[in-house]
Write a structure and sequence with these properties.
Blueprint lengths: L1 E6 L7 H17 L4 E3 L13 H5 L8 H13 L2 E10 L2 E10 L2 E7 L22 E3 L2 E5 L8 H10 L3 E5 L8 H13 L2 E5 L4 E2 L2 E2 L5 E3 L5 E4 L6 E6 L9 E5 L3 E4 L17
Parallel strand pairs: 1-2, 2-3, 7-8, 8-9
Antiparallel strand pairs: 1-14, 3-4, 4-5, 6-7, 9-12, 10-11, 12-13, 15-16
Helix pairs in contact: 1-3
Length: 273
Amino acid sequence: MRVAAVQMDVAIGNGERNLKNILLQLKDAARNKAELVVFPECALSGYCFSDRDEAWAVAEELSGPTCSQLAAAAKELGCFAVVGLLERQGQNLYNSAVIIGPRGVMGVHRKIHLLHLGVDRFTTLGDIPFPLFQAGGCTFGVNICFDCSFPESGRVLKLKGAQLLAIPTNWPITSDSWEHTPKVRATENHIFVAAADRVGEERGFTFAGHSQIIDCEGKVLAEAGATEETILFADIDPASADKNRVVQIPGQYEYDRIASRRPEMYEALTKGS
């Protein structure tokens, strides 16, 4: 299947403009035969909000008009999309990624790990433990930006059966996460990674770009530069992510990072700090 990662600028607080751009990019990606298209974190809203009220004003419920328009486009184009947005549910405000397919809204990943930066200062901790989704023949899960700083986030999805990890992100240029995180998460979990980052500036923050698609052995299939808006494409075989045993030299140099795990030695992981 063909996977796409959209690297784009976002206008903070201007959902109408952002949605229009997302729909254009989705159409372009589908025209180039992409079945799964990943957009950046908070692609519909922007990220660097000054307070909760400002962010709340541009947040939407998943049943709202924006997701409905995205669903209509996915149905028309016959593709799937992961789109970052600010989500309202009751009195909660989540940094979320909505998963859209030809049959409508499939579900949501709410950012599990929050840092003291931008809108994450005002959002609610995600409450859904890393759901899985299906796009064509691919099983995938989502980490939003800071989520993928925690190895457990990718590993739990791999153990649930994910073949691809989608990372909608807003990496600032002060972070070096783009240089190593997608490759490491792919390698350690034997899983494909599609990371869609922002470009441009927003309220004093410049974003790093360098969106990437990585194969399940950590090799770069496609990578963008630091400043341009673009769409990355890569053709992948999702089933190859299920073949965890890597054979470098038959009978002499083989390994399986999943089968070799020893959970009984990892008790400290579940105790918290």
